[in-house]
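Hi all, posting the design record for the shared folder.

TITLE: backbone redesign
STEP: 1 of 1
STRUCTURE INPUT:
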């Protein structure tokens, strides 16, 4: 994968009002890595948002990336639910919607289970803003590119969310 200081980056391509490059952190000791770059893949908010069991929109998760909310069960349990629905990766947003700077270290639970798909942690403010934009536009998902190699992008061209300081 394309990791810099244990960060991984993705860009929202659509909807346009959140066309930014977002920062996420990979799970510490479970999940896979991105061996493929996806230039246009759907980021599908899970229903229910915490993804601790059967999903109402699991058919839309198949071969896409799920946006899940923290809480209700372990990070690993969420990752396994998305993997079982055929998701290629999971992005777990903090459930503290005002969190715009504190990354949680996602670790293995004590169950000895494993997961093969990449699992990423996203700041709560970023997750909230993505979900809010989708709701405002009546869209079932965002279109993203992941991972994005930010080392090749000049700093002045970096389109980062205006609510986040890098």
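Okay, here is what came back for every position:
SEQUENCE:
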């Amino acid at each position: 994968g394309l990791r810099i200081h244990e960060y991984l980056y993705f860009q929202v391509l659509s909807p346009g009002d959140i066309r930014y490059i977002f920062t996420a952190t990979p799970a510490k000791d479970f999940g896979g890595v991105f061996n493929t770059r996806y230039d246009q893949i759907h980021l599908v908010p899970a229903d229910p948002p915490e993804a601790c069991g059967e999903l109402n929109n699991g058919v839309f998760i198949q071969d896409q990336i799920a946006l899940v909310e923290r809480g209700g069960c372990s990070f690993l349990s969420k990752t396994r639910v998305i993997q079982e629905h055929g998701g290629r990766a999971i992005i777990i947003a903090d459930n503290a919607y005002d969190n715009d700077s504190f990354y949680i270290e996602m670790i293995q639970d004590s169950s000895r289970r494993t997961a093969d798909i990449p699992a990423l942690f996203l700041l709560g403010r970023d997750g909230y803003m993505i979900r809010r934009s989708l709701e405002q536009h009546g869209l079932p998902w965002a279109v993203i590119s992941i991972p994005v190699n930010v080392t090749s992008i000049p700093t002045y061209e970096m389109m980062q969310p205006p609510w986040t300081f890098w």
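COMMENT: The radius of gyration is 15 Å.
Let me know if anyone wants the other runs.
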